[in-house]
Structures
1.
Amino acid sequence: MKAVVYEGPRSVSVKNVPDARIERPTDVLVRITTTNICGSDLHMYEGRTDFETGRTFGHENLGEVIEVGQGVDKIKVGEMVCLPFNVACGFCKNCERGYTNYCLTAQPDPHLAGAAYGFADMGPYQGGQAELLRVPWGDFNCLRLGEDARERQTDYVMLSDIFPTGYHATEMAGVRPGDSVAIMGAGPVGLMAAYSSVLKGAGKVMVVDRHADRLALAERIGCLPINDATENPVERILDETMGLGADRGCECVGYQAHDPQGNEHPDDTLNKLVRSVRFTGGIGVVGVFIPQDPGSPDPLEKQGKVALDYGMHWFKGQTMGSGQCPVKRYNRQLRDLVAAGKAKPSFVVSHELPLDEAPNGYEHFDRRDNGWTKVVLHPGAA
Ligand SMILES: [Zn+2]
Ligand SMILES: [Zn+2]
């Protein structure tokens, strides 16, 4: 089968690799029809993780079931399914409590928790930027889609990661109807956090970024765009909230946060939220931070440390939630919003490319080229 293979920093190629296949009775085999390039793929693409060369990326996957193992009861051949990026067993201590993002069975390292397709340090699972994907514990992990799935793949594929992840940021922040919300980052996840806030009935959603194309999308869904290259976002958010600060904040950038000149400051977005979220407000952090980052120019960040304004955070009595999203906690309900026509997360998609053009898609998306807001790949398309 054809697959996107990581060759080294800023290099991927589309190659023939051995076909994914059923390996255990509980596996499901999916022919991938839609798979996204994600911002977290870029951390790996840029060589900032220990992702192995020769492995395949791709954790935002949707496709048609073409084979099921003997122990699969629910999922049937021919069904369209969307796969949470988390690979989870469903029966471990964390999965039982709904924390499929920290599955203990799918992660082979006993000192770690959580697994994903095509992801550094998250188990041996191949990614879905390929013609075929093996889905372990298929009954638990496959989200079945309705008859409209073939026509609306670019909406439904967002249930694999960015839509639930953006929603999770708003849940950890505690967004409720009427709230003012400050969102750092208008990449695909930031836009989904903004969209989720809008869907929840937030009163005012302020989205901070510096890319015109992303800010335009934020505005299109009814949010207030704030360009941090031309104004101080903390002052603006305070101005917009009578000096009190936003009720809720969402961090959707992560450890490679940088100033408009390109210098990385891993603490930048977190501290901007500490300053611009009100006393007793909530902050949800879904941007990626990692335990160590030897390639960072920042001496603290090399050891995974961030100079958080903890004193101010404590003084203001803020709460902060963090970590990857347990996609299964939200994906059914969000699917039903899509099915009912009440959510259309495909508004972030700028490019749909055949799998062969993945290297080109990575290059543009990695450079944040204007207009490349979200790249969707279609294996099997000409
Ligand atoms: Zn993703
Ligand atoms: Zn588990």
2.
Amino acid sequence: MRVCDVYIEETFLQNQTLTYLCQDFDVAFGNRVWVNVRGRRMMAFVKSVYEASLDAFEFELQPILSVVDDTAIINQELFEIAEFMSYQTVTPLIRCLQTVLPNKLRPQTNATKPKMTRGIQYIGGADEDTLTKKQREFVERYKEYEFVTLKEARAFYSGYRSLIDKGIFKEVEKEASYQEADIEEAYPRHSLTQVQRKVFESVSFDSAHTYLLHGVTGSGKTELYLQWAEYVLKQNKSVLFLVPEISLTPQMIERVSKRFGKDVGIYHSSLNDQEKYEQYLRVKKGETQIVVGTRSAIFMPFSNLGLIVMDEEHDHSYKQSNMPMYATHDIAHLRSEYHHCPLILGSASPRLESYARALRGNYTLLELPQRINETFPKVNVVDTKEALYQQESGLMTHDLLTAIESRLKRREQVILVLNRRGYMTLLKDAVTQEVLMCPNCDISLNYHKHDNTLKCHQCDYQTKEIPRGSDNQPLKVVGSGVGTQRLQEYLEHRFPNAKVGRMDRDTTTRKNAHEKILTAFRNHEYDILVGTQMIAKGLDIPNVTLVGILNIDTALGHEDFRSVEDTFNLILQASGRSGRGEKQGEVIVQTFNVNHYAIQYAVHNQYKSFFKQEMQYRKLAQYPPYSYLISIVFSDENESNTYRKSQEFLKYFNDENIKVLGPSFILRLRGFHRVRIILKGKNLDEMLRQVHSAYDKIDKGGIRIDVNPMTLM
Ligand SMILES: [Zn+2]
């Protein structure tokens, strides 16, 4: 009998398959099928089909119920990637398949079907004599068409249905497909400088190899990407451009689209399921050879990839933050190997891991040390302590206020980065001095003025009610701390003639909100743009000549092995937004830690010195890139259960080459107590093998495994 092994979305199964009869069905690897699992109808993914004797099974096999797809939804390469991810991230394969495929194709019981367009098609048999003049015209016009939408048919002849009744046309359905948009303006091609030309020629396109393009902000990395892409497209191969969170870098899409015209595929998180599916099909059918997208675009079904570019490769968004917690870098390496094509990682401040690999010769280092306009912004570090002592405001020092004033006079624009949203960031009971906390998390509440609510920034908790004290009366609350809302209000008050925009998570919840705010800023509808770190990335607006970074110290204070690196990146990236045009730019960093090396090296644009010093600390503490980390978090609503789970895991864990840190309780989130173990070792393969072996033996609920975590917060 013919049988098939299928994967089903059930965590208890992990990577085990179930077997079904498929004698009466046309089914093959990569199809989705409906099956019955313990009385429930579920969608499954076919792993293999083969002949087997029914005696080989100890139980009676059930037949599959029906087949969903007539072709494989995944190719061999992407299936292998899913298998790799499953092992590497300790996640069931079915979950990885769901990540690799767009929602509409996911082997998932609640997956929705692709949208269909209804239309008609000529089937012949028209007897001219029986037709009216209009009907004859209709037949004449549309008989060569493979597909005429109902809308078009109706517009030409409202009585078109009579031709279906006569059996001359039939009604058909086909998948809705992407409508190409017209792009009129072209993004001009710049000729390369001598330095750029040298870098351009260093890349070889006929083998799998990784290049790290370390170029200061404004050094012309994008132009190089575009010219490499142009070269690859001429060879009739495809190009994949990855950017961090796309809404923050609409320019990249704009530039690529304008350079290469309307064929560019776009793939990012704010597309809806149908839009993603249409883009996916375009790549699969070879209708587009160039895709610009975020993390998940790494799974596009290219058949002939010639180049992968990862811009701003240091950005945390390249690591997925829920399961499977995969690193885009790893997948990009696999695809580069499979397609024998180069992978180019670009950044002004590469991840220490990437730069270390380049120094060791695993990657080829390409450098662009100069800005195209040859001037770096003037950087001024202002001591907030000093300012407070002089009785200025600690929020905005005199230096920063004067600098803003002069920009406003000259009709130039200003960016202010404050990495805290909300209005007041700390609230206390005036009597007891107790901080108001989220009831579900060990996190303090923030006050948001525009909707007059108290919010937790970790979970969805919010309330308009002031908490009550033991006397059942509303507490007298005093607030402190400045978030972006309060900064905006302060600026509007201080500079009544200036228009102040704000970009943070609260103003960007709606689709395309990022783009609207940035376009308004680019068109100078705002003089000042206030925002969290999201405005520090990738913006290129020539009229911005001042960038102010407020309160950089909070980031430095985080007890995470990467927080110094992140602070360095934030300053470097934010200062890169200033003075990109003809005018001289200025950057003002307000800090209590004027002499901190991350701040000093960032303002002087000394990546290499920063790298050297930070690597010494990493070496001392044996943090990446000197070791590998795996973070395992156990969570449960019950505190002692949480701890017990971690103990159970550790019971199976005994390898003297792997250091175990913890278990230790970390912040409670969303009502769940959490305990974390960190594994540290030099051999990632061995660490993974041990984790799998322990994980296989225990109850898997409430466990989150993060291999090579970007943060331990
Ligand atoms: Zn909360």
3.
Amino acid sequence: LIKLMQIWNCNIQNTAAVIHVSGYEGRDVNVSCSYGEGYESYEKYLCRNDCGNSDVLITTTKAKKNKYSIYDDKKRRVFTTTLSDLSSVDAGKYWCGVTRTGKDIYTEVRLFVCICQLGDLSGGGPH
Ligand SMILES: *[C@@H]1O[C@H](CO)[C@@H](O)[C@H](O)[C@H]1NC(C)=O
């Protein structure tokens, strides 16, 4: 059946402002992050793990890179990163960032990848 790659931590979910996103292996997933008024023209990005320079996956300055694309909806103040062709290695911790002078603004994101095994959807189970 569907196997979550990471254990959902209910405590984290309820106490911190962490965005949880899940998608299926081989499919696309959208990671949407909102930001405050006044940041419409700032650069936005998505990064992994500790968000060091080599962890930045994509920025709105270069909207398409490898399996990532990013779109900033300035009217709704939401920027969305699409990760295509998900695989289990994509599961983990990400950050949505807004580049600004001083400390950037970060929102933590946890991505879960669900594995859908071949045959599960074709009715092989009990009737
Ligand atoms: C991701 O967002 C784009 C643009 O809004 C949409 O076309 C696409 O269907 C979305 N994909 C998923 C998996 O939700």
